[in-house]
């Protein structure tokens, strides 16, 4: 009994000792952003970290950016990360929000090599968002957005998909890792500097793990409509030659897939609901059902035109699939998919894609007919 009592006491003492490997937060370099460019001084890569500095947070009520920038060049990603410790505390990556790659670096070194260490290291979250920069990626992290760290600003902009259809759904480190393992093409958002401000504009398409082509924000809008990935936003169109705005409330989306003679066919049907939020036509008469139906037809016609132009671009000009159609092929034809996945861009380019959308106006505010026509 005495021996059991001693063991129990020792166990309690162990619980009181705390974490043996704990460290003060001030002794950690808490990374919230990472940019990767071509290296300097004949090195392969340059890694620019944005570190959160706990001492700066709320200091004297200041609105200053509570971060600092540390850049290091090296020949491998892991060695460069460790070399950062020569200038700062060791890197702590559990809170890394964004990773930005420069097009120059990704064109020179395959992206699967650049993220190899990140995937192997479980200290970096696979939910970290990834972006492509047309110019120096490290420069973007130095932009101060009214006291908000650049990394946080980029992350926040990416969450605005309820306000605009021209934003891609955030792409994570885990997402691109899966695509690369399957040897498939994919797209990621482009982070740019516009008149000294951070902005997400269009998307970068990667094929064979290297930059392949870029598409515009308007084409991102068409891509989201094609895939039914719309949380909200405004579509501009014309009626009688005059501009109007259609605010999206919701969308229902269905894709039917068939396969005949070694060829896939995708039939996409969507139903979009919204409101007539703005109309520049002086002869508008929103209380007239016929006028509303004419506006609905204009919305449908315009969306179908934009989406079909995008389909033509992807299938015939770029010959690359950045949609989620491959998932339908994998789910509906699993045995065939085992073979087709290795050359999916070719099968996508040869597929028949029919797109149809029905638009409904549920609301037009309190403004109707303004004058006799």
UniProtKB/TrEMBL annotation:
Domain Spore germination protein N-terminal, chain residue ranges per copy: 21-190
A UniProt-annotated Pfam family: Spore_GerAC_N
Domain Spore germination GerAC-like C-terminal: from-to ranges: 201-365
Protein name from the UniProt record: Spore gernimation protein
Keywords of the record: Germination, Lipoprotein, Membrane, Palmitate, Signal
GO biological process terms on file: spore germination
Homology family: Belongs to the GerABKC lipoprotein family.
NCBIfam families associated with the record: spore_ger_x_C
Entry's Gene Ontology cellular component terms: membrane
Amino-acid biosynthesis listed as a keyword: no
Annotated compartments: Membrane
Range of residues in the leader sequence: none
Annotated membrane topology: Lipid-anchor
């Amino acid at each position: 009994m005495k021996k059991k009592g001693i063991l129990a006491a020792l166990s309690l003492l162990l619980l009181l000792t705390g974490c043996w490997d704990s460290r003060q937060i001030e002794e950690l370099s808490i990374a919230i952003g990472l940019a990767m460019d071509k290296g300097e001084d004949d090195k392969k890569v340059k890694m620019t970290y944005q570190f959160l500095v706990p001492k700066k947070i709320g200091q004297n009520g200041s609105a200053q950016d509570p971060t600092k920038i540390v850049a290091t060049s090296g020949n491998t990603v892991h060695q460069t990360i460790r070399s950062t410790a020569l200038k700062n505390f060791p890197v702590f990556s559990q809170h890394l929000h964004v990773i930005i790659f420069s097009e120059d670096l990704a064109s020179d070194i395959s992206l699967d090599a650049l993220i190899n260490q990140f995937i192997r290291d479980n200290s970096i979250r696979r939910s970290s968002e990834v972006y492509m920069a047309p110019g120096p990626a490290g420069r973007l992290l130095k932009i101060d957005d009214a006291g908000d760290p650049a990394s946080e600003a980029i992350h926040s902009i990416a969450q605005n998909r309820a306000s605009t259809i021209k934003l891609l759904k955030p792409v994570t480190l885990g997402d691109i890792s899966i695509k690369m393992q399957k040897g498939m093409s994919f797209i990621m958002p482009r982070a740019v500097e516009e008149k000294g401000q951070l902005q997400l504009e269009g998307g970068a398409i990667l094929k064979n793990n290297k930059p392949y082509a870029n598409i515009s924000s308007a084409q991102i809008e068409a891509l989201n409509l094609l895939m039914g990935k719309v949380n909200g936003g405004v579509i501009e169109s014309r009626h009688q030659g005059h501009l109007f705005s259609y605010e999206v409330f919701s969308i229902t989306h269905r894709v039917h897939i068939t396969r005949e003679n070694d060829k896939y066919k995708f039939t996409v049907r969507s139903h979009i609901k919204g409101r007539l939020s703005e109309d520049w036509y002086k002869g508008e008469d929103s209380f007239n059902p016929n006028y509303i139906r004419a506006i609905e037809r204009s919305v449908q016609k315009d969306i179908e035109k934009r989406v079909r132009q995008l389909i033509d671009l992807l299938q015939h000009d770029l010959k690359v699939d950045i949609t989620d159609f491959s998932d339908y092929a994998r789910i509906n034809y699993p045995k065939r998919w085992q073979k087709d996945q290795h050359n999916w861009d070719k099968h996508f380019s040869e597929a028949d894609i029919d797109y149809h959308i029905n638009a409904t106006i549920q609301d037009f505010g309190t403004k109707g007919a303004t004058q006799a026509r």
